[in-house]
């Protein structure tokens, strides 16, 4: 019957009612997002959004200031040296605001190291904004290295700014910013890190890195909902950027000045519900035990997932020593693998996964971040085991 396509089989009519009830429960369950943001948030984070708030209200402005303060603390930095500037919109709005404001209109060249879609996006932004730039292209399945960056710099002494992605969400590679950024800061180059999908989920020490700008957003590892991006900036660097911006709404300097000069007032209408949800998410990060505890949970999820998947015969796209705890890419198990069908099967059973983005090989991705536990990963692995055995009819080792 299974071969003929049956999803469930019962041997006794008395088993029918419990079966219908269990299918009903599955369907009413809110699916878990195993995606790199938006991701699964807690019920309490979602519940904060049931109340509406005014934008010029003092409580709201205070909350905004507290959020900015906490973000600098998560970056292990002092507010004497670093500041957090919030920007309406998704993560890319923050990247565009930052690139458009950080780089002066004259006598500046940006070097972008790209090993995936988000590095490519920075190149596209530089193209749109007519920012002179040099590109270091690195294969998608390899990490950016300091040696490669230094080689490019030697050929391009005109470079004044450098940008790289931390966790390249395309594959899940973690680029080694700990070696690259301080070396470039030493040379007087202004450094920019797209840490969108890693900040809050992997420890990052802004002061130790001497990084000038780091970008993240409300809907990644802090586990809030989508609505604003965040630029953590070295104050002395940001303070030099007045008049650089190529856009009124995305002027990061003016955004910073408004927060500073008006006690946490946003420049234009802000996503109030999202800010309240984010503040709750920050409190929950603290309750979990901070970034260290969260990293540990994500690591546990990632290890369980990739070990379990490999046992089921799924191969990894990238090498284990550059793998982040954030998201994992798997190759299709066969050339005729139908990702859509696999996706739908898992979705019907409560899990939303992610298509692949690697151009060289057919792959799919599973995220380890968000309100997701080892139990959830084990439930997912069981489903994938059944699917692999029964629908794909592939042999499974154990
Ligand atoms: C999510 C993400 C972004 C921003 O994407 P948006 O869709 O604009 O939120 C940028 N860089 C990386 C590495 C990301 O993971």
UniProtKB/TrEMBL annotation:
Stretches assigned to the Aminotransferase class V domain: 109-356
Gene Ontology annotations of biological process type: organic phosphonate catabolic process
The organism's place on the tree of life at top rank: Bacteria
Pfam families: Aminotran_5
SUPFAM superfamilies on file: PLP-dependent transferases
Modified residues (N6-(pyridoxal phosphate)lysine): 220
Cofactor dependence: pyridoxal 5'-phosphate
Catalytic class of the enzyme: transferase
Residues at which substrate binds: 365
Substrates-to-products reaction catalysed: (2-aminoethyl)phosphonate + pyruvate = phosphonoacetaldehyde + L-alanine
MF terms (GO), sorted A to Z: 2-aminoethylphosphonate-pyruvate transaminase activity
Keyword ATP-binding found: no
Keyword annotations: Aminotransferase, Pyridoxal phosphate, Pyruvate, Transferase
EC numbers, comma separated: 2.6.1.37
InterPro entries: Aminotrans_V_dom, NH2EtPonate_pyrv_transaminase, PyrdxlP-dep_Trfase, PyrdxlP-dep_Trfase_major, PyrdxlP-dep_Trfase_small, SP_NH2Trfase/AEP_transaminase
Family as reported in the entry's similarity comment: Belongs to the class-V pyridoxal-phosphate-dependent aminotransferase family. PhnW subfamily.
Biological function: Involved in phosphonate degradation.
Subunit structure: Homodimer.
Record's protein name: 2-aminoethylphosphonate--pyruvate transaminase
The species this protein was found in: Secundilactobacillus pentosiphilus
């Amino acid at each position: 019957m299974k071969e003929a396509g049956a999803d469930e089989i019962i041997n006794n009519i008395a088993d029918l009612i419990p079966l219908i009830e269990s299918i009903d429960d599955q369907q009413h369950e809110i699916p878990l997002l195993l995606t790199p943001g938006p991701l699964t948030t807690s019920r309490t984070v979602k519940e904060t959004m049931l109340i509406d708030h005014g934008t010029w209200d003092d409580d709201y402005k205070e909350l905004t200031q507290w959020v900015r303060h906490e973000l600098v603390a998560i970056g292990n930095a002092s507010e004497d040296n670093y500041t957090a500037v919030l920007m309406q919109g998704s993560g890319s709005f923050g990247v565009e605001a930052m690139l458009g404001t950080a780089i002066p209109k004259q006598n500046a060249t940006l070097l972008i190291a790209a090993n995936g879609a988000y590095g490519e996006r920075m190149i596209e932004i530089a193209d749109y904004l007519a920012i002179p730039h040099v590109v270091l292209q690195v294969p998608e399945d390899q990490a950016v290295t300091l040696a490669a960056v230094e080689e490019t710099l030697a050929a391009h002494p005109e470079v004044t700014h450098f940008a790289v992605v931390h966790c390249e969400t395309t594959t899940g590679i973690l680029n080694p910013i700990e070696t690259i950024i301080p070396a470039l800061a030493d040379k007087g180059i202004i450094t920019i890190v797209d840490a969108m999908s890693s900040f809050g989920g992997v420890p990052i020490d802004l002061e130790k890195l001497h990084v000038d700008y780091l970008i993240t957003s409300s809907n990644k590892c802090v586990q809030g909902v989508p609505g604003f991006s965040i630029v953590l900036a070295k104050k002395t660097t940001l303070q030099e950027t007045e008049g650089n911006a190529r856009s009124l709404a995305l002027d990061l300097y003016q955004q910073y000045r408004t927060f500073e000069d008006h006690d946490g007032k946003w420049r234009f209408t802000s996503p109030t519900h999202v800010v309240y949800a984010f503040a709750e998410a920050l409190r929950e990060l603290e309750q979990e035990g901070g970034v260290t505890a969260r990293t540990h949970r994500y690591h546990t999820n990632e290890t369980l997932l990739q070990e379990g998947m490999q046992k089921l015969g799924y191969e990894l796209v990238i090498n284990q020593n550059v793998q982040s705890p954030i998201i994992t890419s798997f190759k299709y198990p066969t050339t005729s693998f139908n990702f859509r069908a696999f996706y739908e099967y898992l979705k019907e059973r409560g899990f939303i996964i992610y298509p692949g983005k690697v151009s060289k090989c057919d792959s799919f991705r599973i995220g380890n971040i968000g309100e997701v536990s080892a139990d959830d990963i084990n439930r997912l692995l069981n489903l994938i085991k059944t699917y692999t055995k029964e629908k794909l009819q592939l042999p499974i080792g154990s």
